[in-house]
Specification:
Layout lengths: L4 E2 L8 E2 L11 H21 L3 E7 L12 E7 L8 E9 L5 E7 H5 L5 E8 L2 H12 L1 H4 L21 H14 L8 H10 L5 E4 L2 H10 L10 H4 L3 E4 L2 H11 L6 E3 L1
Parallel strand pairs: 1-6
Antiparallel strand pairs: 2-5, 3-4, 3-7, 4-5, 5-6, 7-10, 8-9
Helix pairs in contact: 3-5, 5-6
């Protein structure tokens, strides 16, 4: 599967995840606040001693669904020295479309996306898992191995028709965790591993009018990958940052959540 991994993104609204599309140019204040958050996050990452973390930002207000974070990337130290830079590999939806690609950014650009809240959070991954995952993140081909460009903001976690940003992150984590010859090399195998490790997606209560309105007005929302019995019961399961952050410490795959304000 051909997948573009870019060295960085201009913060111009052309690719989004975790927040609505917006082509308005960034204000000087937004740039200042985004870079300040990036610097505080870098300091917290350095202090954690981690080499790979799952890093979240609050791109939009999801409090109506009792969720705090909207978008997940995988951040890794790109080198073995104490001053090696941090990079973030994450999936972004092309604004106004049902397509997405993977992007590699520094911490600054990652937070220059007009977030709803200037806060971040991360979970340091267990050392063994971090060592398995980091080489995949540094390799464009391996990092994109499980990427599906057909994007659905509410993709069903146990299907492969679409893929949203948070889903790519944990499926790639699953691929790394399998290790060696047993590494889950397909999305279905990665999902089987996630099930076996007890991952539980968030289930949103979305009525038919809400679903119809979202499907009619947004190219990046679909429900046809969800089982009919769940969909018609208004139960829409999807991968959220909050569910991933609850799961990782519970299984020992990651440490406690660290918040950066």
């Amino acid at each position: 599967m051909a997948t573009a991994v870019a060295a960085g993104l201009a913060a111009n609204g052309t690719a989004q995840a975790g927040r609505p599309c917006d082509d308005a140019p960034l204000s000087a204040s937004a740039v200042e606040r985004g870079m300040a958050l990036a610097e505080r996050t870098r300091a917290a990452l350095d202090a954690s001693g981690a080499t790979v973390v799952l890093l979240a930002r609050a791109g939009q207000d999801l409090s109506a669904y009792r969720l705090r974070w909207s978008h997940l990337g995988i951040a890794y130290r790109d080198g073995d020295s104490a001053d090696a830079p941090w990079r973030v590999l994450h999936k972004l939806n092309h604004c106004g479309t049902a397509d997405a690609a993977l992007y590699r950014q520094g911490l600054g650009p990652f937070f220059l996306d007009s977030p709803f809240r200037y806060e971040a959070a991360f979970v340091p991954l267990a050392p063994v898992l971090a060592a398995q995952l980091r080489p995949l993140l540094q390799d464009n081909t391996l990092g994109a191995r499980l990427h599906e460009p057909r994007y659905n903001m509410l993709a069903y976690p146990w299907a492969t028709q679409y893929q949203q940003s948070n889903q790519w992150a944990i499926e790639t984590l699953a691929m790394a965790a399998g290790g060696g010859a047993d590494r889950p090399a397909t999305r279905a195998l990665a999902q089987d591993w996630l099930r076996a490790q007890g991952y539980q997606p968030t289930v949103l209560q979305l009525g038919p009018l809400t679903r119809l309105g979202a499907r009619a007005t947004r190219a990046n929302v679909a429900f046809d990958d969800h089982p009919n019995d769940q969909r018609f019961a208004d139960r829409i399961a999807t991968v959220t940052v909050d569910s991933v952050f609850a799961w990782l410490p519970r299984t020992g795959l990651g440490g406690a959540v660290v918040e950066v304000r």
